């Protein structure tokens, strides 16, 4: 008799437990659906004056889910037609700089409901083989979006590749160009660190940073070393200014984006003529990772890949001093051209 009572009690507890779990799941789903069904807000046109266009922000968030389903082949052509999906050429491009924080910037801008990002680096304008495939090939590499959204892609090699400014100009002479930079010496060491890690994965040896950055014959900075050349920002920018006015560029402080991302993102929103939608709610500091992660809603969070934020090797302080002294006049000219002074030593 006692055994039957215990079995009956266990069965009741299992039923109650199942009901509790089911109720919890229902509440989570309900909160998510209520979040999606909140009254929608109008936003301004992509690059026009206020009030020229209206677009449902919550619908854009839903759209991202629909686009994901479409990419997986789970949406019918009728659904796609119903929602007026298009593949648009980018209205803004993050053209560089390598190891400046281009991926972080792209992912953070994707928090904005009027922005759709190209997930992969297309390398259309810097790769002759890809460029020969034509602009229609490039457009088809873009994500599906609403006509009122703006598509953004990033390929850091664009900034330092000679042919790219003219090629982009031929596509769209009024395009918005984003350049994210870090303190030049730090960026060069980060560049070296990424290459070093790749060599180590293949069990290959690699020179120390000091040996690459300093010419052993002259004991001066080795400008033939690509990591050093890339950090001479003003040299590359001058080539772009032959095609685009400085007003079409926006400089993002990559060092500040790491420690204080929201003000930098708000400046980009303003540059792109987007209404302010990214808030502190969307950004939270992950103490384990050591940098900010992204919060899209109460359910979906995202951190950058583990390869981001690599630990740099120790570098001889005298080499760091020499590099900073070398970069200083170029930095001053960069500040003068762009109108933005950065707190670099």
UniProtKB/TrEMBL annotation:
Q: Does the keyword Transmembrane apply?
A: yes
Q: Which species does this protein come from?
A: Capra hircus
Question: Which domain of life does the protein's organism represent?
Answer: Eukaryota
Residues annotated as binding 3'-phosphoadenylyl sulfate: 99-103, 182, 190, 292, 308-312
The record's section on Gene3D superfamilies has: P-loop containing nucleotide triphosphate hydrolases
Could you state one GO cellular component term attached to this entry?
Golgi membrane
- What's this protein's name? Sulfotransferase
Sulfotransferase domain: residues covered: 90-334
The membrane topology noted for this protein in its Swiss-Prot or TrEMBL record is: Single-pass type II membrane protein
Gene Ontology molecular function: [heparan sulfate]-glucosamine 3-sulfotransferase activity
Q: What are the disulphide bonds in this sequence?
A: 293-303
Q: Which UniProt keywords apply?
A: Disulfide bond, Glycoprotein, Golgi apparatus, Membrane, Signal-anchor, Transferase, Transmembrane, Transmembrane helix
- Per the Swiss-Prot or TrEMBL record, the active site comprises 99 (for sulfotransferase activity)
Question: For this chain's UniProt record, which GO biological process terms are given?
Answer: heparan sulfate proteoglycan biosynthetic process; negative regulation of coagulation; regulation of viral entry into host cell
Q: Give the gene symbol.
A: HS3ST5
Subcellular localization, as worded in the UniProt entry: Golgi apparatus membrane
């Amino acid at each position: 008799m006692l055994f039957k009572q215990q079995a009956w009690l266990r069965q009741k507890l299992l039923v109650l437990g199942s009901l509790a779990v089911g109720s919890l799941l229902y509440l989570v789903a309900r909160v998510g659906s209520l979040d999606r069904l909140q009254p929608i807000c109008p936003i301004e046109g992509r690059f026009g004056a206020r009030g020229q266009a209206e677009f449902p922000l919550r619908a854009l968030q839903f759209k991202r889910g629909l686009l994901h389903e479409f990419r997986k082949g789970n949406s019918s052509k009728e659904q796609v037609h119903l929602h007026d999906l298009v593949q648009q050429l980018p209205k803004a491009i993050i053209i560089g700089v390598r190891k400046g924080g281009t991926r972080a910037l792209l992912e953070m801008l994707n928090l904005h409901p009027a922005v759709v990002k190209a997930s992969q680096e297309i390398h259309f304008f810097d790769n002759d083989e890809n460029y020969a495939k034509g602009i229609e090939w490039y457009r088809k590499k873009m994500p599906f979006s609403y006509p009122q959204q703006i598509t953004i892609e990033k390929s850091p090699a664009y900034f330092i590749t000679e042919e790219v400014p003219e090629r982009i100009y031929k596509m769209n002479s009024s395009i918005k160009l984003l350049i994210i930079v870090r303190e030049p010496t730090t960026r060069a060491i980060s560049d070296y660190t990424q290459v070093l890690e790749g060599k180590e994965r293949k069990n290959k040896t690699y020179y120390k940073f000091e040996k690459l950055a300093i010419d052993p014959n002259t004991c001066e900075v080795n400008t033939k070393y690509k990591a050093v050349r890339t950090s001479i920002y003003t040299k590359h920018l001058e080539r772009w200014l032959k095609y685009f006015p400085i007003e079409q560029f926006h400089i993002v402080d990559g060092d500040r984006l790491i420690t204080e991302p929201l003000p930098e993102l708000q400046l980009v929103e303003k540059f792109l003529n987007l209404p302010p939608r990214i808030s502190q709610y969307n950004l939270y500091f992950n103490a384990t990772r050591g940098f900010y992660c992204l919060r899209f809603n109460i359910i979906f969070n995202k951190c950058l890949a583990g390869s981001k934020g690599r630990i740099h090797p120790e570098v001889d302080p005298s080499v760091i001093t020499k590099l900073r002294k070398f970069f200083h006049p170029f930095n001053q000219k960069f500040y003068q051209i762009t109108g933005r002074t950065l707190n670099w030593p």
